[in-house]
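User: Fold both of these, please.

Assistant: Here is the first one.
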Amino acid sequence: MNLLPTEPPACTREVGSLCYQVFQVTKNEWLSASAGWLLTKPLRILMIVAVAFLLRYLVRRLINRVTRMPGGSSKLPALLRPLREKAPEVLGSAVMERRRQRAATIGSVLKSMATFLIYGLAFILVLGELGIDLAPIIASAGIVGVALGFGAQNLVKDFLSGMFMMIEDQYGVGDVVDVGEASGTVEAVGLRITTLRDINGTVWYVRNGEVLRVGNSSQGFAVAVVDVPLSYSADVEKATELMAEKAKTLLESEGLAPNVLEPPEMLGVETVTPEGIKLRLTVKVRPGKQWAVQRALRAHLLAALDEAGFEPPLGRFMSAGPAPQ
């Protein structure tokens, strides 16, 4: 029995169709019947791939446009303009560099997400053009997605928290922060984990989704607070004038002047205890410089008060007395 077709395909009789035109030229039934698949399908697939590449290029350009800072300008990128500005303009180049790094990080994440979504959609459309039934694949992907969603809730939570932390500029590399269980200098900020190094050199890895509050000591500006103890017999008014004068002189020196944003403020008596009284002085300084300024002021002021004859609290009881003969 002859199983081969005895008549040309029906499409060869459809005047004007691609099948008809190919059959008229080649007289080949298989080629004419397959002309639509051999020519139309590759063209459609090629168009899908070309559109995906073009769309990815345009999206990446758009992301660059809204996250890139103009050269030499302190103006915020378009993506960050609606957000609250936390750093004073007096910080100059430090603020510009922080803005640039923050915008670059956000832009990198958005580009990766856009590439994944665009190429993923293009891959699904190509499979559809090849005649592959996508219903089982989509159903399986949906079931897997739900299972992964339940199993990776913490991962999704960490990812979203990390994204919002970067967008809101809660902290960045080099900041000194307190996140509850750990505190220290930020060494790396990722979408899932923040890396801190504390004062003892221990490295802490903190999941972003577990951070409920953040205390940032390096954002915008800082305040150096210096408390100086005095005895009850001290002349408070004279000690206050002396501290204000010595602090102003020290902060105008070359070593500390670049870190000072405003003149020192003498607040006066802060606390009264059974041992004595404490005078407080504050200075607004650059972020992260408060500790160095505090140490320098404390040493300088204590030496100046001692030189002027002011006794520390309980000085008469703790005096070593004359050296033994």
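And the second sequence with its predicted structure:
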Amino acid sequence: MKPIILTIILMLGTSGLLFAQEETQKPLKISGYAEIYYQYDANNPENNSRPSFVYSHNRNNEVNLNLGFVKANYETEKFRANVALAAGTYMNANYAAESGVLKNIYEANVGVKISKTKNLWIDAGIMPSHIGFESAISKDCWTLTRSILAENSPYFESGAKISYTSNNGKWLVSGLVLNGWQRIQRVDGNSTVAFGHQLTYKPSEKITLNSSSFIGNDKPDSIRQMRYFHNLYGVFQFSNKFGLTAGFDIGAEQKAKGSEQYNVWYSPVIIAKYSPTEKLSFAARGEYYSDKNGVIITTETPHGFQTFGYSLNADYHILPNLIWCAEIKNLSSKDNIFINRDNDFRRSNFSAVTSLAVNF
């Protein structure tokens, strides 16, 4: 009897191992994401749109889809590819400059490993941005809405990159050739390419340090103005319950073609996160964005865009793949730049937003 039982156990164990191997060897994975939100803007603008520098969760007083996509990922030891088609108010706002079906391409890229012994890859296509610690996917961020810093630097990019990850996973180095500042298609009349870099250092699982840059011209050649931009951030997970993210963006663009003078903008941001339980977390954010000369955010006011912001956030994981979020946020500017329903301009803007996000 014992030999029979042992034989059955061995057969089941072997079958389970083969099944596990089959599961891990499947190169194709299909996934999806959807985030529904409702937002209240105290200024209650007549067009039900948030200020023009807001791209995520930018509709007021309506239940809407911020971002929904279906993604196919194919990955083997030497090849990888991603295709994701998306819809939502984020896509409408952030891809407004693109034409036709390009407005609905969230991601489309292919990559080839070019070294037998090192983790060295070349990827090309439409890719997530190499800049910043926030993405358009709210569930992956500490706050429900994005910082002004994230909203006004690239969410996505198109071009090619070469990247190297060290064997211990502590270092990531990449160099990029891009079509422009958050562009799938270049601006008409632009014949130049842009460049970028990313350097990420993770000395431990609790610390991430990152440096990213962009260098290029995002205007037609006739009015070419070089733009130089740098993003620096650090993520510090002090314990299972407490974490801190600090970031700083600074950019400079020529005032005119061939000019040796530059318009400068910058933005510091800090986010603290507290998680009393595995399912529940809170976050507080403080930020400032200064763009006096309107390089990125145009106001046509005496002091340009100089805005402080703070927000408080709560997240609750109803299920492992279903998260409810709520946030209150206030923005306060040096000039009257926020419009209300009566077409009056105010210095401050208060909003409250809640969302339900699911991934599969």
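The chain has a mean pLDDT of 92.
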